[in-house]
Amino acid sequence: EIVLTQSPATLSLSPGERATLSCRASQSVDKYLVWHQQKPGQAPRLLIYDASNRATGIPARFTGSGSGTDFTLTISSLEPEDFAVYYCQQRNSWPYTFGQGTKLEI
Amino acid sequence: EVQLVESGGGLVQPGGSLRLSCTASGFTFSNYGMNWVRQAPGEGLEWISFIRSSGSTEYADSVRGRFTISRDNAKKSLFLQMDSLRAEDTAVYYCARETGYIDYWGQGTLVTVSS
Out of B58, B106, B107, whose CB is closest to A94? Predict the structure, then answer.
């Protein structure tokens, strides 16, 4: 199975700063990388699909990039509501796998 | 509005069984694949099963042979039959719609396996 490794595990930043989250795959997933956001006590929510496509209603400050094995989620200027856990997930091959998550904290 | 509502969670003893349900609304259920994803307390997300609109299925190794995914399109419902439950199956179980990728999640139902 494809292993996804996210870094850093925890990212401490302030509102208004830029956040850069990384996801590395153990083998190529082509463009088939998805990002989900999860806030405490809530279900996850789709942010980005196929590496760089924002889901409906997702603000433009969220940008996904990458292909193959290296992917990045960038949040250009953090808003208070962006502090959450972010998971990458590959849909290139079965079984689907998730990264272990990056916690973005204030 | 897409809505997914899970039910059926609860406390079960090791070796026991439980059947989870997910009721869908706001979209044509029969046209979509559906997933189950779980999250152990304080842990990350783990994909466990998928069923296509055709009815064919996929499973994670951790549950293959113990869990069975199924669907009833007439009732707009997804199911997860969980047998031979273990302590490590304790988690919140989410159903999630698939449109080539997971795009909507339910709120989850908690399953606790303990004596």
Answer: B58
